[in-house]
Specification:
Layout lengths: L3 H7 L17 H18 L9 H14 L5 H14 L6 E2 L11 E6 L2 E7 L10 E5 L2 E2 H8 L9 H11 L3 H6 L9 E6 L5 E6 L4 H7 L2 E2 L10 E6 L2 E6 L4 E6 L5 H17 L4 E5 L8 H12 L10 E5 L6 H12 L3 E4 L7 E10 L6 E10 L12 E2 L4 H5 L4 H13 L1
Parallel strand pairs: 11-12, 12-13, 13-14, 14-17
Antiparallel strand pairs: 1-16, 2-3, 3-8, 4-5, 4-6, 6-7, 9-10, 10-11, 15-16
Helix pairs in contact: 2-3, 3-4, 9-10, 10-11
Length: 417
């Protein structure tokens, strides 16, 4: 990558930065101090800061950025800091933009066959559910993705890049910083349906808190396998079961505390033994991480359950969204529980830098995260933990509410009964 000036020269024919107000001259020294602190603290705290970029290269990138400060707006500076953090090349070293006063345009997207589909919306835009995103402010989505790709945070491989693009394509400050919008107050998202009909929605951003509350309409409601929950820790961690097919399903989206996991896991252990459950499905597909030692606590309890079919009856569902601790636990469950992994490759890599720490820049108070450990959850490096049974999502099944990976597991269980 090069400096802002190089980028402007290289892509001048296709885009320009927004005309947002440049940083006040009185703030330049503070930003220089923050940029220097960024490198100094990462050198102190990161386990191996220069594993992919040399100290000389990082210093040059940051020096160019400091010289460019008078011509940048704050959002342009934000995306440049994000771009430079990506050069460090591990998904836990990031500019934590989400902890700032960030606005989100009220859409949630998922990627199918390389296209972004609108899968969750507010009441005002429910008529657009299932439409494909084609442009933002008349910039074709292909160009939007080209500009976003070197900037989006939390990327470890091609799988997490796909996920991060789908989530960060709705962040107002990032879109302004890469020149897609002119400011952060409004954007025009253009969609087409499968018949080729086009619609444009002019939207304003909302806060993270309001974003989750506003997005009330999905392609289809979330489903509870086997109809009802048998054991519940929270909406992000629960179990359902079907005694007739001797199968239980654990939805594992967020990590609880050690004590809460111990209580939940003990209840699971008792239930599985009492009901003579033979097959267990653990779903990590929406889990972005936490503390993998908490997940190991559940594994310890599960190993005590003699009723389970330890040769063929344990399954773990994974996806491109399975990241950090969830990726780690998926790899560990393959070893500890003899689990068969079903779904997509994970967004986190099983060999690489993880375990997130953080610090704040002294003047802007931007939060910077970094990797504290280097883990090897398998012998050889792969782009994500690879599933034993690869089942990628397709739009036709998704829009019909068909969970293909889970359906495959249930059919596999049925064959063994």
């Amino acid at each position: 990558m090069r400096s802002i000036r190089f980028l402007l020269k290289f892509v001048a024919a296709s885009w320009t930065f927004s005309t947002a107000t440049a940083l006040p001259e009185s703030d330049i020294d503070d930003w220089i101090e923050d940029i220097d602190y960024f490198q100094q603290e990462l050198q102190k705290k990161h386990i191996n800061l220069y594993h992919s970029i040399s100290e000389k290269q990082l210093t040059e990138e940051l020096s160019r950025l400091k010289s460019d400060l008078p011509s940048l707006s704050e959002n342009q500076l934000l995306v440049e800091m994000m771009r430079i953090s990506r050069l460090i090349d591990d998904g836990h070293t990031q500019v934590a933009f989400w902890e700032e006063d960030i606005g989100f345009f009220p859409f949630r997207f998922a990627t199918f066959a390389g296209e972004l589909r609108l899968v969750t919306v507010s009441e005002a835009h429910r008529h657009l559910l299932g439409y494909k995103l084609k442009a933002i402010n008349d910039t074709p989505i292909e160009e939007v993705m080209r500009r976003l790709s070197p900037v989006v945070q939390g990327v470890e491989n091609a799988h997490s890049l796909k996920v991060r693009l789908a989530t960060q394509v709705k962040v107002a400050q990032i879109l302004d910083g890469i020149g897609i919008t002119d400011g952060t107050e409004r954007a025009n998202y253009t969609f087409t349906n499968d018949a080729g009909n086009s619609k444009t929605a002019s939207v304003s951003p909302v806060s993270m808190e309001k974003f989750s509350k506003q997005l009330t309409h999905r392609i289809f409601p979330k489903q509870i396998p086997f109809g009802s929950k048998s054991i519940v820790d929270s909406e992000n961690l629960w179990m359902s079961a079907n005694e007739e097919v001797q199968t239980a399903y654990i939805y594992f989206r967020r990590y609880p505390s050690f004590s809460d996991m111990e209580d939940f896991s003990k209840d699971i252990e008792d239930f599985l033994e009492r009901k003579n459950i033979k097959n267990l499905i653990i779903d990590f597909r929406e889990n972005g991480g936490g503390d993998f030692f908490v997940g190991l606590g559940m594994a310890w309890r599960l190993v005590l359950v003699d009723s389970l079919d330890w040769d063929h009856g344990i399954y773990t569902l994974i996806s491109n969204k399975t990241y950090s601790a969830a990726m780690s636990n998926a790899a560990q469950y393959r070893q500890l529980l003899n689990a068969k992994l079903v779904g997509e490759p994970t967004g986190g890599n099983p060999v690489g830098y993880q375990d997130m720490g953080q610090f704040s820049l002294p003047n802007s108070e931007w939060t910077i995260t970094y990797s504290k450990r280097n883990y090897k959850f398998q012998d050889a490096f792969t782009e994500g933990v690879q599933p034993d049974v690869l089942i990628e999502p397709d739009w036709q099944s998704y829009q019909q509410g068909v969970d293909r990976p889970l359906s495959w597991i249930l059919e596999d269980i049925k064959k063994r009964m």
